[in-house]
TrEMBL record:
Similarity remark: Belongs to the vitamin-B12 independent methionine synthase family.
Family annotation (CDD domains): CIMS_C_terminal_like
EC number of this enzyme: 2.1.1.14
Top-level taxonomy: Bacteria, Thermotogati, Deinococcota, Deinococci, Thermales
Biological processes per GO annotation: methylation
Cofactor: Zn(2+)
Pfam families xref list: Meth_synt_1, Meth_synt_2
Gene from which this protein is expressed: metE
Annotated Pro residues bias: 365-381
Name recorded for this polypeptide: 5-methyltetrahydropteroyltriglutamate--homocysteine S-methyltransferase
Location of the region described as Disordered in the Swiss-Prot/TrEMBL record: 365-390
Organism annotation: Thermus antranikianii
Occurrences of domain Cobalamin-independent methionine synthase MetE N-terminal (ranges): 6-289
Pathway(s) per entry: Amino-acid biosynthesis; L-methionine biosynthesis via de novo pathway; L-methionine from L-homocysteine (MetE route): step 1/1
Keywords linked to the UniProt accession: Amino-acid biosynthesis, Metal-binding, Methionine biosynthesis, Methyltransferase, Transferase, Zinc
Length: 733
């Protein structure tokens, strides 16, 4: 028997309904009743969309904010009364909110729950299965679904050293959770089974799943990363209703007991290219012919894709993309192909079969070749002493002050951009407005007395989308929104051909800014790792290849910028550490790639050009080797919210370091006194001549008056610090 299973259809909805509902409810413009009704309608639409194309799909999947939070609440980690939406949202946003973290290397952020010290879990009535939204429908249709205990334990703020006791307690709790749907088929989502270390935890896991499988018909679904072969083999011995296996090169499908369906995960959930269904049919039909029950499914939940392809596409992309809804269609088509292959080998194909094959054939076109040959990797930059010496002509004081790039974006600016898009404003008029904004930013920075200036990035809607708009080979979508966290959405651009500069990327804006001031202005570029990480990659092209090609495009820009006399270049790589591979054996290769890509971008710059690297919040424990291979002159970090002791891991590196004078995510004013204390704390870990003074990220999301107040205080703090160090002698090393 062949069936289709899908999961994770975007809760955002076809027209960002989810965002509107959440934000309306939070702001008070949508009443509680209307809010819940709206969510129910959205869930009904999602179910109808599934139903139209696939056989099996989850019910009650529509989270109120985040599925991990739902699970944490259902298990009583944060006791809430039934229906206490205010309490729920207090955990998701606001002062006491749980921290956010990236989810399995994707761009979705989940709320990171805290496990109880003692393994005790008490399911909360009203928050478990069926979940608050889609409650009525969930009892009639679809598979009730839960995130599994292993994913909870591995992804928590405080993963336990030994899982045994927690898994034992969770067994009881999950058994209680599934009582309302006892005997039904339940979909347990366990992406963490693909992480390193799952093998060691197997005995406890087998006990857990084995027990739960006595209560419900259990479908166990790992996704994103293929679990180790030994893990798959062991899981295949359990009396499950279904076991998910990610089809990947080198993965062999396990033997499962009679009565267990193999959930073969075959279509992409993280990429946007249509699937070669005929080729897949060839691979799967021998399995289907054995009589094995097969369910075809995606390799990842579908919410990392936009809802559907809903805009006219340029020629190179037309007929080649599949977003979430198209993935459902692919599963249906694949099923049709498999059915005809297994039933009618002997007899001539029926008209239906012919249609299925014809459709599958027309569905897919092979990708054009990735026509890109990188130039040789440049030799490493001149030694640091030579660079430091050459950079003394920047004439920077001790504790140089700077910002990370973006200045507050006003509504006016956003309106100008909208009007440019709709052609109500022409390029020339738009450029005049941008110049106006740059002029104001430069004037402000000079008045404040900052040392290294920026143009303020008024022309950028988003640090990736902006570059995608200016590089050939990228398609920045109009309507391809996906959820980032909560109600926040973004539009990942699609890289479909080797990126080439169609026009200068940052040159015009940077030179204009530099023309207004004698102080050095930084040219600021989003780095190749981040551009690749926050885009959909070309079909059949590895992350590595995309990164190298992007680095090459940036290299040209950087050279041009320097040849026009710009003396400081900053590469922004906020995605650097979040892209650190989840599997330890892939990390050395990644480190090498990061080093090579950075060198390709800045390696040919003369020693007098100062190279800055900016990184956002991440786990800095892993940072040091990256700074060693990248070897920037200055690095700025998003560290203002961390304990300064995180710098311990970076002592002895001979580069300028700006760990962050204040947190840009808070609207609060930080007094100069407090900033000074923070800077002094940093000086416990690094020598004075290395400390840079800067906000910990861009100021784009702040109100102008908030940014101004804190920048003023920051410059004041730097001045006082210099005084304490006996005046402002030149910066050097
Ligand atoms: C998320 S990192 C942002 C860096 C960028 N240059 C900015 O200042 O906004
Ligand atoms: Zn940042």
């Amino acid at each position: 028997m062949i069936r289709t299973l899908a999961y994770g259809l975007p809760r955002l909805g076809p027209n960002r309904e989810y965002k509107r509902l959440l934000e309306g409810f939070w702001s008070g413009s949508i009443s509680r009743e209307d809010f819940l009704e709206g969510l129910e309608a959205l869930e009904a639409l999602r179910l109808a969309t599934y139903r139209e194309q696939v056989d099996l799909y989850p019910a009650g999947e529509l989270s109120l904010y985040d599925p991990m939070l739902d699970l944490a609440v259902a298990l009583g980690l944060y006791p809430l009364d039934p229906g206490d939406l205010e309490g729920y949202y207090a955990l998701a946003r606001g002062k006491e909110a749980l921290p956010l973290r990236k989810w399995f290397g994707t761009n979705y952020h989940y709320l990171v729950p805290r496990l109880p010290e003692r393994p005790r879990y008490t399911p909360q009535p009203g928050w478990g299965l069926p979940y608050p939204v889609g409650r009525n429908q969930a009892l009639k249709e679809g598979l009730p679904t839960l995130l599994g205990p292993y994913t909870l334990l591995r992804m928590a703020q405080n993963p336990p050293d030994r899982l045994g006791a927690h898994l034992e307690a969770l067994t009881e709790a999950y058994v209680e959770l599934v009582q309302p749907v006892r005997g039904r088929t339940v979909l347990l989502q366990e992406p963490a089974l693909g992480l390193d270390g799952a093998e060691e935890d197997l005995p406890h896991l087998l006990a857990f799943y084995g027990t739960l499988a006595q209560e419900v018909s259990l479908v166990l679904l790992p996704y994103y990363l293929p679990p180790a072969p030994r893990v798959v083999e062991a899981l295949a011995t359990l009396p499950l209703r279904g076991l998910g296996v990610i089809l990947a090169p080198g993965v062999s499908l396990p033997q499962v007991p009679k009565g267990t369906a193999l959930v073969v995960e075959v279509v992409e959930g993280l990429g946007v290219w249509r699937t070669n269904l005929l080729a897949l049919g060839e691979v799967l039909s021998p399995l289907a012919e054995t009589g094995q029950e097969v369910w075809v499914a995606p390799k990842a939940p579908l919410y990392h894709l936009p809802w559907e392809v809903a805009e006219p596409l340029p020629g190179a992309l037309a007929g080649r993309l599949a977003f979430a809804r198209e993935r459902l269609k692919e599963l249906a088509l694949l099923k049709a192909i498999l059915l005809t292959r297994t039933t009618s080998q002997e007899s001539p194909p029926s008209p239906e079969e012919e249609t299925a094959f014809a459709q599958a054939r027309a569905w897919y076109t092979p990708p054009p070749p990735w026509d890109f040959r990188p130039s040789p990797v440049p030799a490493s930059r001149p030694p640091r002493e030579e660079r430091s010496k050459a950079q003394q002509n920047l004439a920077l004081p001790l504790f140089p002050t700077t910002t990370i790039g973006s200045f507050p974006q006003t509504k006016e600016l956003r309106d100008f951009r909208k009007r440019l898009r709709s052609r109500a404003l022409d390029q020339t008029a738009y450029w005049l407005h941008i110049q106006e904004a740059i002029r104001a930013n430069i004037r402000l920075q000079e008045e404040l007395g900052l040392d290294v200036l920026v143009h303020g990035e008024p022309e950028r809607s988003d640090m990736v989308e902006f570059f995608a708009e200016r590089l050939e080979g990228f398609y920045p979508t109009q309507k391809g929104f996906v959820l980032s966290y909560g109600s926040r959405v973004w539009r990942p651009p699609i890289l479909f051909a080797p990126p080439r500069r169609r026009e200068p990327l940052v040159l015009r804006e940077t030179l204009f800014a530099q023309s207004l001031t004698p102080k050095p202005v930084k040219a600021i570029l989003t780095g190749p790792i981040t551009l690749a990480a926050w885009s959909y990659l070309p079909q059949g092209v590895e992350f590595r290849e995309a990164v190298i090609a992007l680095a090459e495009a940036l290299r040209e820009e950087v050279k041009e910028v320097a040849s026009h006399g710009i003396r400081v270049v900053q590469v922004d790589e906020p995605a650097l550490l979040e892209k650190l591979p989840l599997k330890a054996k892939e990390r050395p290769g990644y480190l090498a790639l990061v080093g090579e890509a950075f060198l390709r971008v800045v390696g040919e710059l003369p020693p007098e050009v100062q190279v800055h690297l900016h990184l956002c919040y991440s786990d800095y424990a892993a940072l040091r080797p990256f700074l060693e291979v990248m070897d920037p002159d200055v690095v700025s970090l998003e560290g203002a919210r961390q304990d300064p002791s995180f710098l311990q891991t970076l002592t002895g590196l001979s580069l300028g370091l700006g760990p962050g004078a204040f947190d840009v995510h808070s609207p609060l004013e930080v007094p100069a006194e407090e900033i000074l204390t923070r800077l002094q704390a940093y000086l416990r870990y690094l020598p004075a001549e290395r400390l840079w003074v800067n906000p910990d990220c861009g100021l784009k999301t702040r109100k102008p008056e908030e940014a101004l107040a804190n920048l003023k205080n920051m410059v004041e703090a730097a001045k006082r610090l210099r005084k304490a160090f006996g005046g402002s002698h030149a910066h050097g090393s």
